[in-house]
Structures are given as C-alpha cells and as structure tokens.
Design brief:
Elements lengths: L1 H15 L32 E14 L3 E18 L2 E17 L5 E6 L3 E10 L6 E11 L12 E5 L2 E4 L4 E13 L6 E14 L4 E14 L2 E17 L2 E10 L7 E10 L1
Antiparallel strand pairs: 1-2, 1-14, 2-3, 3-4, 3-5, 5-6, 6-7, 6-8, 7-9, 8-9, 9-10, 10-11, 11-12, 12-13, 13-14
Length: 270
C-alpha cells in the first residue's frame, strides 16, 4: 500500500509539475473527460497525453439507520492519442475510504484501499475536436486490482457512446448512453446495467465553462434491481490551453442514489 502511494505521488509530480515544452504542432482545444457525469466524444491529439486527476471526491449516503461517507483521492486517468481520432485510456484510483455509522447502535466501521484499473479505447466517428456534431464509441474493461473497500472484486466491461452537438458558440447538448456488464454485489459474476446522461454545456466566459446534467442508470443486480437518478452541476476553468481546474456537485434524486457528492480535480495536457 505505501509503495503504491509513493509510486502514485511520484507520477503525479511528474505529470502536474512544471510548465511543459512548447508544442511543435497546432493542437485542438483541450477537451477533458472531467468534470461531470457524461463522457465527451472528442479525442486527444495524436502523440499527446492528457492526465486527469480527481484530487478529492466525497459522497454521502444515509437513511434512518445508517450514514455512509465515502472518499476517493488520487483518481487518475491517462489518455493517449494513438491517431487523430482514436485514443487509449488507463484509469486507477490511488486511495478510497469508507466510513459507516450505525445510527441506532452508535457503532462505526471504516475501511480503505486502492481501486480497480480501467482500460478503454475511444474511437471518434465525427469531429474529433468535439465541435459540430461529434460522436464516438468507447468500449472499456475493468480489472479487479482493487481491495474490498472500493474494488468490485471481479472484472467488468461495457460500451459507452458519447454524442454531442454545438447549438452555438456558447451552448451545446450532450448525450451519453451506455450498457455495462456490471459486477454483482457479491463480487462474483456480472449482470446487466444500462442508462445514460443528458446535459447542457455553456461557455460562461473566455476560460470558464459549466454543465448541468441528469443521469439515470438501471442496475439489474441479482440481489435487487434499482434505478439511480442523479443531477449534476459542474464548473471548469482553463487558465491556459493545456491546463484545467474543475469542481462539481452531484445530488441524488431518489432513494436508490447517494444523497450528495462533491469533488475537485485538475487536467493537464502534454
């Protein structure tokens, strides 16, 4: 665990410290995956890397008997442009922690550990810079490298189809349908999950953008079927062309969803 954190911190310092070399070619506008619930259709420029780091993420889920606080720190996504319209991705969470309090008994339990590894390929089909009508397909697989606290316990996979359309220079709409082979709650085997995200993006200023999104996800776990419904508001600031800082909030809209989630993150292109 300690060695894993040291390796992660070393990588993070290399990725996010310094100013970077001057670009030898004209690059498209920075188009990160974060923040928000949806997935963009744009891809990374060929031969370049985009590193996206969720610095800290906190969520709360409670009912009459239990309160559960969950944190993730160091949620890292690396994206590499293989061609002008295709990228490969690897994602990993350095640390996750969960604290559960039984309101009736007054007892507290907690755990922590690393997360699973996610591998993905995104192939853009129209406008890889995300302008106009942009579409992509993105198959992915998760590998059970994480611990019991935030790891799924078995492999999973899925397909995401990001779609977006620019209404004007200031506004855009996006749709992200997906279908997943999600890992069962007992950590063995898989089941069907499906849903999507719809969102409205706005360019608030020269360097600031925001998005309002809604998500519905149907999970047909053998232990019990449920539909999560979420609403999200996020903001992003790009002080320069290769750097973005972001923050967001997510609210659960029904009993099957976590009550609230807050997060901040950073993106850098190399």
């Amino acid at each position: 665990m300690k060695h894993g954190m040291k390796r992660f911190l070393t990588l993070a310092c290399v990725l996010f410290a310094g100013t970077g070399a001057a670009q030898a070619q004209e690059l498209r506008s920075l188009c990160p995956d974060r923040p928000g619930l949806g997935t963009p259709a744009c891809t990374v420029d060929r031969g370049h890397v985009v590193a996206e780091l969720g610095v800290v993420d906190w969520s709360l889920d409670q009912d009459d008997s239990t309160r559960t606080d969950s944190w993730t720190m160091g949620d890292l996504l690396l994206r590499y442009g293989v061609t002008g319209d295709m990228e490969v991705q690897v994602g990993w969470t350095a640390l996750g922690a969960v604290r559960a309090r039984d309101k009736l008994a007054g007892t507290i339990s907690h755990g922590s550990g690393i997360g699973d590894v996610t591998l993905a390929v995104r192939r853009n089909l129209s406008h890889p810079d995300g302008s106009g009508f942009s579409a992509a397909v993105m198959p992915y697989v998760t590998l059970p490298t994480g611990g019991a606290t935030i790891g799924a316990g078995d492999w999973g996979s899925g397909l995401i189809v990001p779609l977006s359309y620019s209404l004007s220079d200031s506004f855009s709409i996006a749709l992200t349908p997906e279908v997943d082979a999600a890992v069962d709650a007992d950590r063995r085997g898989r089941h069907l999950a499906f849903g999507g995200v719809i969102g409205l993006g706005a360019q608030i200023g020269e360097a600031v953008s925001g998005a309002l999104e809604f998500q519905a996800l149907r999970d047909e776990d053998p232990s019990g079927h449920a539909t999560k419904k979420l609403a999200s508001l996020s903001l992003a600031w790009q002080p320069r062309g290769d750097l973005q800082l972001d923050a967001g909030a997510v609210a659960g809209l029904n009993a099957a969803s976590p009550d609230v989630e807050l997060y901040v993150g950073i993106t850098r292109r190399f």
